[in-house]
Write a structure and sequence with these properties.
The complex is a heterodimer of chains A (353) and B (842).
Chain A (H helix, E strand, L loop, with lengths): L13 H9 L1 H11 L14 H33 L7 H36 L11 E8 L2 E6 L7 E4 L1 E5 L4 E7 L4 E3 L8 E3 L5 E5 L5 E6 L12 E7 L1 H10 L2 H8 L6 H9 L27 E2 L4 E2 L4 H12 L13 H12 L4
Parallel strand pairs in A: 1-5, 4-10
Antiparallel strand pairs in A: 1-2, 2-3, 5-8, 6-7, 9-10, 11-12
Helix pairs in contact in A: 1-2, 3-4, 7-9, 8-9
Chain B lengths: L10 H15 L13 H29 L10 H35 L8 H23 L24 H29 L12 H33 L12 H35 L6 H14 L15 H13 L1 H17 L6 H24 L1 H7 L3 H31 L6 H26 L16 H31 L37 H4 L3 H6 L13 E6 L6 E7 L5 H17 L3 H20 L28 H30 L13 H26 L6 H26 L7 H32 L9 H31 L2
Antiparallel strand pairs in B: 1-2
Helix pairs in contact in B: 2-3, 2-4, 2-15, 3-4, 3-5, 3-7, 4-5, 4-18, 5-6, 5-18, 5-20, 6-7, 6-8, 6-20, 7-10, 7-13, 8-10, 11-13, 11-14, 13-14, 14-15, 18-19, 20-23, 20-24, 21-22, 21-24, 22-23, 23-24
Classes of the chains: A alpha+beta (353), B mainly alpha (842).
């Protein structure tokens, strides 16, 4: 199997990943103590305010509850070891009441109140309340088993892409999420909480990335056989870069790109006669059953996280997708000869705006 | 009344008494063993079957841990993995946890409250067979590689016919509904048995705490299971017929399924926890050598828990996107559960504190329970905090939390209970050494598996993925979890070997080996089918501590109901509050009907699965036939209690009174039915108000006139039933049969009118959810009108046979209750389905 997740090279965590392989034990201990960055999906390595609040809430709760836990267990064990004293019935009632009211009522009431006082403000900050300046809106639509991402507010017209989500850093973004089939869940662990993607409904979640960077996301609600292979590549970039990225993906630019290279006219014909029933490429087709492919060459991974994008990867996917991602909804196209698949793959790789 | 102790009888009389009791209560051998209805035998069957399913569920768990032990594994295909995870959850919840605890309650409750059997023994048997057949059908789907694969929660649309086209979801929906018959029947009869058959003098506040816990569990089953049954019926109708209850395009809403599922699913967690806590509350005082501290506090905590647990279901749905206010409410309510839990934990602590605790094997499991359950409870409070929940929901953190609560809160107490009551099951003592090894392996294995899994979840690993990539820091933790899982399995293997060996090599137990306080230890070890030769009066919560001679006295027949020459199986019917004896309850003996009825229902289940609807129809008719035949052998029927002779001074037989246990069973069953009906109304109003694409026609398709006339016919029938009962109370049975036939006729009229409304409404049930849900309501009413008519008709016939009349007035009272329920429900239905849409409009 090829080395997967090439795009991790760009991840700030790469050194730690390498280190982990060198000495897992030391790292295990270190992580248990420090619990710093532990991969691209750790909620304890926050990269945005919402996730940072939750991580803090977690550490406070862990500390407090560890004390409660040890206290309760220690009391029980002590009750076993304790020397037995004879008490009068009245004394017994008094002791009993002290334990039950103190431990059974006051302790939980105190803990729960403290938790709510601490937790409610954290929750409130995550709500998509109205802002003085309306935030960028990105629509994300879940499919079995890929992501459709739309930018309705892009200057010059809506931009559509799949399995990658580019967002502006340093500003709040409202994600309007829904589903085209079963229930999925949208979750970028390092930025904040998750929200379900339901057919027929739109849920809104507001997230903000502090700084430019790459954050993983993965479907969080069991959505069928290939739930495990429904990754979303998320990258936060500066405002200008974001605008430029959108501008590159305007319909006419993409349509030009699709027909730019005469060398691939055969591949385009194959696409239009076969693939276009499900996939769209701007200027050639408008089908929406499978992912839009207009900028596929510029995406960092294929098949919802099954393969990293590199030369020949698309051809490899076309030949083996039912083994790489069994039961995915794309019919096998093994009946095509290698040359056809090769040119199809090569053409799709050129779709890099 | 036989409250006065009988004189000690001579050894010959005593022998005759034992022979008579064995004759009446004895279990047949060979093929006829299938007719046994006795609670001891059936309780054991429930528990052994539950253990078998535990092994199946455990093997599935090991398959899961093997697959995700390391990244990029190809041990199982993704399809099989989805089936395995779905079945692991399903088997453990529905085929292991609930039935085995029901089995324990079925076995233990009559013995603890000083009765000889549960109050509806044939219902126990029906429940067992439904459980066994349903469990086999469901498990068989794995052999066919057609097991359900959309998760044990069956979220639609994933489980719908579009996204799960095979038979998997059908296996789940039909199999689970079949199994739930057993839960509901156990729920109903445990409630009635606890309330009405406690031995003389066992007032509610003198009842063992275990009985309180089981009472709460049973009531929660009665109220909590119907929403899921309704949900399963709706989803199966959607899959089989295309009625779009959950389909957005047809005006349905998939979130309705989640509400119905968790309306059941959350109480279910407490249905599992409460009996286990009952075991804890039974064992701790025995090994602390003193009564429980804060009995009243614990009863209060149980009650509060029972109520709160029905207000928490939305905390499973915090990420669905429901309104903030609702989230805040459910978040706070979820945290409040910490209070009743805390009260119990600290009442147990105070009991140990003030007692002289001894560390025996059952206590070891109790300590294990405490450590694991407290940890699970604390992570539960964390999860109730909405912002934190949004992060860790559907990750391995939740998997870890849930196993801490369920294994800690159910399995560890269950093991404690099994070891504690082992002498009762086998007459032998468990070994301390192998048992301790087993405990430590399970305890260590469990924590290694699941403590680390919290961390895997915090690192972002989602649930239910069949594979994952290396590079997220999950690898080593998953491997550790898997190793822990196998250590835990080894521990359970050791426990099972220990228990198996003890049946042969265990030291024979003496009477009351742990020096316990409750009546089950007054049994012979192992117990006889009739439990007690005589039923004692009880003055305290701790009969065996305060009267150590009681077991001997009971075996010598010195207390109540020490006769069986009349050939009836008898127990006391006592006042629900005070425990004063009111009547003698005679319960039916061994019968084929429960098995036959369950077999007919199994045919229905399988033919629905295979879409052989004509066969299913025939099966339903046959099943109803069996059930009615079964109900025929009651009251003054020759096979029940043809003559009403009792010992001088004893109270009358319940079938000769107006307030027997059947009435209580009917009431409890109608609570379950009412819960089903309320769930239906919830569904109707939910779709109406929340569903995004709901379409309400401008004019209601239901004929209001016809419905009102049907309602009046129903009222007339009910009035006739009431007047029959009033006259029976005055010992008058002239014209009784005519009244009953009249009620049946009016019920028939109601039936015809509803049928006409259905016909006339031209409902497009596969087009819109509005028409589909309307049709379900009409079918509900239709079924009830038919049932009312048929049972009144049968009552009329029974008057002719002299099974019912002024001498045996009981049955019409029960039937009249059903009619009352029918009236209330039908008029609410008219208001909700036909009047309200006309008033408010779409």
């Amino acid at each position: 199997m090829r080395e997967r997740y090439l795009y991790h090279v760009a991840s700030p965590c790469i050194q730690r990943v390498a280190l982990r392989r060198v000495n897992r034990l030391i790292l295990l201990l270190t992580m248990l103590v420090l619990a710093g960055c532990a991969g691209d999906r750790s909620i304890l390595d926050p990269a945005g305010q919402a996730a940072r609040d939750v991580a803090l809430v977690w550490w406070v709760m862990l500390t407090f509850f560890t004390v409660v836990f040890i206290g309760v267990i220690a009391l029980w064990l002590y009750a076993f070891k304790r020397k037995h004293h004879e008490h009068t019935a009245a004394q017994e009632r008094k002791i009993a009441r002290r334990w039950i009211i103190g431990g059974g009522i006051l302790l939980p009431v105190f803990s729960v109140s403290a938790l709510l006082m601490f937790g409610i403000p954290a929750g409130k900050r995550m709500l998509p309340l109205p802002l003085s300046e309306p935030p960028e809106v990105i629509e994300v639509i879940g499919h079995q088993w890929w992501w459709e991402v739309r930018y309705p507010g892009a200057a010059g017209g809506e931009v559509v892409t799949s399995n990658q989500l580019i967002m502006p850093a340093g500003e709040p973004v409202d994600f309007h999420v829904t589903s085209a089939d079963v229930i999925h869940a949208f979750w970028i662990p390092r930025l904040g909480g998750k929200v379900d993607m339901l057919p027929g409904r739109v849920n809104v979640i507001r997230l903000e990335a502090d700084e430019p960077g790459i954050f993983d996301a993965q479907c969080a609600e069991f959505c069928g056989t290939q739930h495990a292979h429904m990754d979303l590549y998320v990258e936060a970039v500066g405002r200008e870069e974001f605008e430029a990225w959108l501008a590159d993906r305007q319909g006419e630019r993409l349509a030009e790109l699709a027909v730019a290279n005469d060398e691939f006219s055969q591949a385009r014909e194959t696409f239009v006669s076969t693939c276009a029933a499900c996939h769209s490429v701007a200027g050639l087709s408008t089908a929406t059953i499978g992912p839009d492919l207009s900028d596929i060459g510029a995406r960092p991974m294929l098949g919802g996280g099954v393969l990293p994008m590199e030369e020949g990867a698309i051809q490899y996917w076309l030949e083996n997708h039912q083994t790489l991602k069994p039961s995915n909804k794309m019919p096998s196209i093994n009946y095509m000869d290698t040359a056809t698949l090769e040119s199809l793959g090569a053409w799709l790789e050129t779709l890099t705006p | 009344m036989s409250t006065i102790d009988r004189e000690a009888t001579g050894p010959e009389d005593l022998q005759k008494l034992h022979d008579d009791l064995s004759e009446v209560w004895g279990n047949p051998k060979g093929l006829k063993a299938l007719t046994i209805v006795n609670h001891t035998t059936l309780g054991l069957r429930f528990m052994v079957t539950g253990m078998a399913f535990f092994l199946i569920g455990g093997i599935l768990a090991m398959l899961i841990r093997t697959q995700i032990a390391t990244p990029d594994q190809n041990f199982m295909t993704p399809e099989i993995y989805s089936q395995v995870t779905t079945m692991h959850g399903t088997v453990m919840m529905f085929l292991f946890a609930i039935p085995i605890l029901e089995g324990l309650a079925i076995y233990m409750i009559p013995k603890m409250i000083g009765a000889r059997d549960l109050v509806c023994p044939r219902l126990t048997a029906l429940g067992y067979w439904c459980y066994l057949f349903g469990g086999i059908i469901l498990s068989f789907s794995m052999v066919l590689e057609m097991a359900p694969d959309s998760g044990w929660f069956m979220y639609t649309p994933l489980s719908s016919s579009e996204y799960s086209p095979g038979l998997g979801s059908d296996f789940w929906l039909l199999g689970i509904t079949f199994v739930e018959i057993s839960a509901l029947s156990a729920g109903v009869e445990l409630v009635v048995s606890i309330l009405r058959t406690r031995t003389q003098g066992m007032a509610l506040h003198k009842m063992p705490l275990f009985a309180w816990y089981i009472l709460a569990m049973a009531l929660m089953i009665v109220v909590g299971f119907p929403p899921l049954i309704l949900g399963s019926i709706l989803l199966e109708l959607e899959r089989a017929v295309g009625m779009p209850f959950f389909d957005i395009a047809g005006g349905g809403d998939p979130v309705l399924w989640q509400h119905l599922f968790w309306l059941f699913g959350h109480p279910e967690v407490y249905i599992i926890f409460l009996p286990a806590a009952g075991i804890v509350a039974t064992i701790i005082p025995v090994f602390a050598g003193r009564p429980i501290v804060g009995y009243g506090w614990v009863v209060f905590a149980i009650t509060v828990m029972g109520f709160i647990s029905f207000g928490l279901w939305v905390h499973h749905m915090f990420t669905v996107g429901i309104p903030q206010l609702a989230q805040a409410f459910f978040s706070a309510a979820s945290m409040l559960v910490a209070i009743p839990t805390g009260i119990q934990i600290f009442a147990w602590l105070a009991t140990l504190w003030l007692g002289k605790p001894k560390m025996k094997l059952p206590m070891l499991w109790i300590i294990g329970f405490l450590v694991i359950f407290v940890c699970g409870g604390l992570t539960g409070v964390m999860l109730a905090l909405v912002p934190f929940n949004w992060q860790v929901h559907d990750t391995h953190f939740v998997v870890a939390h849930m196993h801490y609560v369920l294994v800690g809160g159910m399995l560890f107490p269950l093991m404690a209970g099994i070891y504690y009551w082992l002498p009762l099951f086998s007459g032998r003592m468990p070994s301390e050494t192998i048992g301790k090894w087993g405990f430590w392996l399970v305890f260590i294995g469990f924590n290694v598996t699941f403590l680390i899994m919290h961390w895997t979840g915090l690192l972002g690993m989602p649930r239910r993925v069949y594979t994952y990539d290396t590079g997220f820091g999950w690898d080593i933790f998953n491997l550790i979890s898997s190793i822990g899982g196998f250590v835990m399995s080894a521990g359970f293997a050791m426990v099972l070997i220990d228990i198996a060996l003890h049946f042969r090599y265990g030291k024979p137990a003496k009477t009351n080996p742990w020096n316990a306080d409750t009546l089950e230890w007054a049994n012979q070890l192992p117990p006889s089918p009739y439990n007690f030769v005589s039923l004692p009066p009880i003055e305290t919560r701790h009969p065996l501590w305060e009267h150590p001679e009681l077991p001997r006295e009971m075996q010598e027949g010195r207390h109540g109901l020490a006769t069986a020459s009349h050939g009836r199986r008898e127990l006391w019917g006592t006042d629900p509050l005070t425990g004063k004896v009111r009547e003698i309850i005679h319960v039916p003996s061994n019968s084929w009907w429960p098995l036959f009825a369950a077999m007919a229902l199994a045919v229905v289940c399988i033919s629905l699965l295979l879409r052989w609807y004509p066969v299913a129809g025939v099966g339903v008719v046959i099943a109803i036939g069996f059930l009615l035949r079964w109900s025929w052998e009651n009251g003054a029927h020759p096979k029940a209690a043809p003559d009403a002779k009792v010992m001088p001074g004893d109270p009358p037989l319940h079938s000769r009174t107006m307030d027997g246990p059947g009435l209580w069973a009917m009431t409890t069953a109608m609570i379950a039915n009412g819960s089903f009906f309320l769930s239906y109304l919830f569904g109707w109003f939910y779709l109406w108000t929340v569903s995004p694409e709901w379409r309400m026609p401008d004019a209601s398709p239901l004929s209001l006139v016809a419905l009102v006339v049907a309602g009046i016919a129903l009222l007339g029938g009910s009035a006739l039933m009431e007047s029959s009962v009033r006259r029976l109370r005055k010992q008058l049975d002239k014209g009784l049969a005519m009244r009953l036939y009249g009620a049946a006729l009016l019920g028939g009229l109601q039936f015809v009118l509803i049928l006409w409304v259905m016909w006339n409404a031209n409902l497009a049930v596969t087009e819109t959810s509005h028409d589909a849900i309307l049709m379900v309501g009409l079918y509900y009413a239709l079924l009830h009108s038919a049932l009312g008519a048929v049972i009144s008709l049968l009552q009329g016939m029974r008057v002719g046979y002299r099974y019912v009349g002024a001498h045996a007035p009981f049955e019409p009272v029960v039937v009249a209750y059903f009619w009352r329920y029918n009236v209330v429900v039908f008029w609410i239905l008219i208001a909700a389905l036909a009047v309200l849409p006309r008033v408010i409009g779409g």
